[in-house]
Amino acid sequence: MTRPRDASDVGPADGDALGPERFTDGPARLCFQAVGDPADPTVLLVGGVGSSMDWWPADLVAALAAGRHVVRYDHRDTGRSATSRPGAPDYTGRDVTEDALRVLDAVGAARAHLVGLSMGGAIVQELALEHPDRVASATLMSTTRAFAGADDAALPPSDPALHGLWDGPSPDPGDTAALVEAAVAEDRALTGRGDFDEARTRAVATRAVERSTDPTAGSNHFAAEPGAPFEGTLADLAVPTLVVHGSEDPLFPGHGAALAAQIPGARLLVLDGVGHQVAPPSSWDVLLPALLEHTAEPTR
Predict the structure, then answer these.
(1) Pairing with 282, which of 93, 218, 224, 231 sits 20 to 30 Å away (CA)?
(2) At residue 42, what are phi and psi to the nearest 5 degrees?
(3) Could you tell me if 52 and 74 are in contact, meaning their C-beta atoms sit under 8 angstroms apart?
(4) Catalytic residue among 52, 159, 249, 255
(5) How many domains does the chain divide into?
(6) Is 118 a catalytic residue?
(7) In what order do the strands lie in the sheet with 42-46?
């Protein structure tokens, strides 16, 4: 078996055209990028389970950064952030949620507009509930409710085609080709009947694998203990909220509407032809204006 990569040999420190990668201080070292003018409203992008910041594509980040100070980061056990042994995470789910605040501290942002995808959407809900002073607005993309509700059983189930998607062993952490193929296959399945661009997905997956200390460690997100619970309900969320959901999401079909219905004042934006994925460029003519409008409030 090929050894996992060391943080010092996973690619150029400056990453891509967006600029240099930086790291938080402290025992949980988190890798992040900040793009755009810090005087503009800060937008923090919070990714999904097992996802490094690469899954927020550079061209989408650049488009947002034309008028926003955009920050994306690697969760623990992804990308160049702190990595623990696969199967033995040394953190809880609450730690992963609160890491977002550590990144905001590192960029000097007292508050920010939070945009979360899938698991990231749950993280944003939790932070908006416990730390509303740090959340200027919440955008919840391709996600479901982070807090249990009385009618959870009535929510539509996932497409049966996804059953077992995350079962089975990961490829060898040194086998780049197999890791990329696995990531592409996962993204294809989650896109469902939505707009899937294999070449674009493959480019993102390749970059994510090549710059990760251990490309298989993201599975620890499923193994981590939840930690101290977040108390409250969706009805307690008091920050301006935009719910963005794909019409073809096979993992959480119709959950966006249920989510928006329970958050006071929430607005729902349904993207036609989009699955459980970062919104593809074909939807940006609808998505970007909505995001820019929702994140216009100054954060400094």
Answers:
(1) 218
(2) -85, 130
(3) yes
(4) 249
(5) 1
(6) yes
(7) 22-23, 31-35, 69-73, 42-46, 112-117, 135-141, 241-246, 267-271
Estimate to the nearest angstrom the gap between the alpha carbon of 217 and the chain centroid: 16
Residue 139 domain flag: yes
List the one residue out of 12, 266, 296 whose CA is nearest residue 139. Answer: 266
Q: What is the CATH number of the domain that holds 121?
A: 3.40.50.1820
Residue 249 is a catalytic residue: yes
The residue annotated as part of the active site, out of 51, 52, 118, 137, is 118
Range of the domain at 241: 7-294
Indicate whether 2 belongs to any domain: no
User: Catalytic one among 69, 113, 245, 276?
Assistant: 276
Would you state the structure tokens that stand for residue 80, as one six-digit string?
């160049």
> Count of residues for the chain?
300
The closest alpha carbon to 300, from 169, 67, 22, 112, belongs to 112
248-274 pLDDT, tens digit per residue, is: 999 999 999 999 999 999 999 999 999
Query: Are the CB atoms for 91 and 76 separated by under 8 Å?
Result: yes
In a domain, 59, yes or no: yes
Whether 99 contacts 28, CB under 8 Å: yes
77 in active site: no
Structure tokens, 188 = 């294809």
**200-214, pLDDT tens digit by residue?**
999 999 999 999 999
300 falls within a domain: no
